[in-house]
Each structure stands twice: as structure tokens, then as C-alpha cells.
Input
Amino acid sequence: MLFTTQKFLFFFLVVFAAYWVIPWRRPRVWLLLAASYYFYASWNSQLARLIFLTTVCDFFIARGIDATDIPWRRRALMLLSVVGNLGVLCYFKYANFFLQSLEEVLRAAGASASFPVLSIVLPVGISFYTFEAISYTVDVFRGKIRSERNLDHFLLFILFFPHLVAGPIVRASDFLPQANRPKRLSWPRLVVGGRLVLLGLFKKMVIADRMALLVDPVFADPAHYESAVVWMAAVAYSIQIYCDFSGYTDIALGTARLLGYRLTVNFNMPFASPNMSELWRRWHMSLSNWIRDYIYIPLGGSRGNPLRTAFNLLFAMTLCGLWHGANWTFVVWGALHGVYLIVHRAFRAATANLEEVQALAESAPGTALRIALTFTAFTLAMVIFRSPTFADAGAMFDRLFIPADGAGPPVPAVTFWTFAGIVLVAHLIGSSPPTLARWGQMSPALRGLGWAGILFVTLVLTPVKTWTFIYFQF
Output
């Protein structure tokens, strides 16, 4: 049940109306639980049982952690939850990947090996809700939060349909207290939630899906197109995945807000970042914060010597790549971002006392250059991310760096430049507090006219064919 379908619109309107008609908090939770379970079962009813059972297990394990003060028992229960959740994730998402990789290693060593391909259906959203469950039990173990006493509240934390299948990755400390708070339907809530939903639909259906018309054919056969078009497609994919994923997040935040809940902000103008460290503080923020808190810092973070810090960064980002998918291209993409972060830290340390370099970097031209270089590095890494195989990525890089003639763009170039310009302007405005302040000071009528224009453009320019959200595969 995609957010962009009429089926979801009808589903949400029914849930929204019933939710606010019910005057009691607990029955509202039960309604959202039933709706969320139905939402997930619409993808696969068998796998809906899996998420229910694993969530119940995590609930009672966390209660067990809170019930004892004996350190080894607390640690054993925490590890039971972590290993159990990772075991389920590895089986469904990585079993065939690990078997195929082992088979290739054995064959390279001269051994005869052949493993069957397992018929496994990947549960939608498993990477997201697995990380949510792990963070919960680890936080209970660390004493950061108390275990939730109400099973229905904990089930809602994991199953809440706006964030269930593609995030953002929410923390129990942020979500669970909201289940007990009184909620009232108000005009500001409707306005904020509605704007977020509309903005998400515009990003996804107008920008991301139209960029896909350029991206898909070029990535499928880069040798057919001239180098300039391949560069255009590479940049278009960065824009597509940003608008696709942040668009989904906006819809998730908007629908949650309409139901009285606040979810974690996941994007903050990432393409305005002057370096890769800053980009990861703005891009998929719920994932990058999770990796920081549960992988990077436990490894030692930046507390050790530079070599140890570099290892921690590389290891954490490689796991980030593996989290995205069971393919070596994702692993290399994550490792490359680890290298980016290491290089940035090394450059920052080397130039920390060079005042002229610092002044140049902080100047307007220097900042613009750093932003352009960061975006270019991000885009080149995304070529690997988007490519099914290294051969496909190599074909793209050949065309990117070896100028060649070929066909023109599969869609009018003005389409690319228009929507790339919209994203650029949005980042310039969103990164400028004075500009945002002036927008906030505009009359409600003018702001309303602006949102009406976005609605009109969304209705008119939505392509006949729509694409599923990219992060649904993760």
C-alpha cells in the first residue's frame, strides 16, 4: 500500500476520521495498532506475523532486563535480543548473499562448491524496524530508558504505519511518551501535517518520478548516450533519491502529525553541506545517528589515535552500506563514504592552524566550491549505489570520465534543469535563516497561495507511471 496510491488515501482518511472520533487514549492506540497491522499485512500477511512475534519477544526481554540487577543476566538478555533481531535480519536479507559470496570464495580457492538459492521473501521494512528494536533493548540495558509496561504501546512504537516500512528510524525515548499524552485535533496540526504530506507528494511524484525518466534508461545503457547526458543522469539520480526518500519521510511525518505524533526529522538540506561529515549530519539523519550511537561510539569513536578513529569510521560506514542491501556494490559504497569521512578529518586536522586556508575555505567562493566538491563526491558514490553490478558501475564511469559522443537525453533537457533548479533554490532558501524568516513573515494568504500552487503543479505534472519508493527495497 504505497503512500502515493488512492488505496492509501482511502485507508488514511478512514483511520484519521475514526481516530479523532474516539475520545479515549487507549482505544485510539488500539485503533492505530489494528490499522498498522492491516497496513503491513497488505504487503504480506505471513510476514506480518513475524514482525508481531519478534516485537512481543523484545517487549518481554526488555521487561526481563529491567527486572534484574544482576549484570550478567542483563547483558545476556540484551544480547539475546540483539542476536535474535540480527539473526532474523541476516536470514531474510543476507542468507543468499552470504552463500553466494562463500561459493565464489571457495571456487576461487579451487574447491568445488554449489549452494542452492533459497526462496526467501524479504519482509518490507525489516532493516528499519530491526534497528528500532535493537536500540530499544540496548537503551534499556544501558539504563537510558525504563522498559515499557504496556504491550500495546510498545507494539505501536514498532508497528506505527507512517514509519513502518521506510523510516525514519525512531527511538523509544522519543515515541513512547507520546502514546500517553492527550491529543486534540487542531487547525495548526492540520496545517502542518497537510503541508508536509503535500511537500512529500510534490518531491516524490513531480521531481523524483520525472528524474527517473532520465535516470533509468541512461543507467541501463550508458554506452548509448554521450558523456554529458551520463553526467546529467548521475546528477539526476542524486536528486531523485533525495526527493524520493525525503518525500517519503515528509509524508510519514505529515501523516503522523495528523494523528498527533511527532517523528524524527530525517533530512536537513543535505546538498548544502560543505563537507562529507556535515552531509551525513543532514542526510538520513535517523540512520546516521543510530550508527553513531550504537556502532561508532561503542567502537571508541574519535577518542583514540587517528588510525583507530579511521578504522572506526571505515567499519561503521561499511556496515551502513551493508545495511542498505545484500550486494557488494552497497558495501563498497559504504566503505567509500568511510574513506570520504577519513579524508575530511585528515584535511581538517592538517589545515587547522593555517589561517589563510581557513579564511579561504570560509569565504563565499570557498564555501561554494566545497559544496560543489561534496555534491560531486556524493554523486560519484551514488553511481555505485545505483548500479546492480560493478560492471554496470564501470560502464557508467567509463562514459563519465572518457568523453564520447552518443545519443542525447531520453527526456527534454529542460526537465532536468528545471527540477535541478528547484532543488537548488530550495536548498539555498532552506539554508538561509533570514530567508526562512521572511517566508514566515508573509501573510497567510500569500503562503496559502504558494501551497495551492504546489498542489496544482503536483496534480498536473505527476507522471502517468509512478515508481515505488526507492528505500522500500531496504
The mean pLDDT is 92.
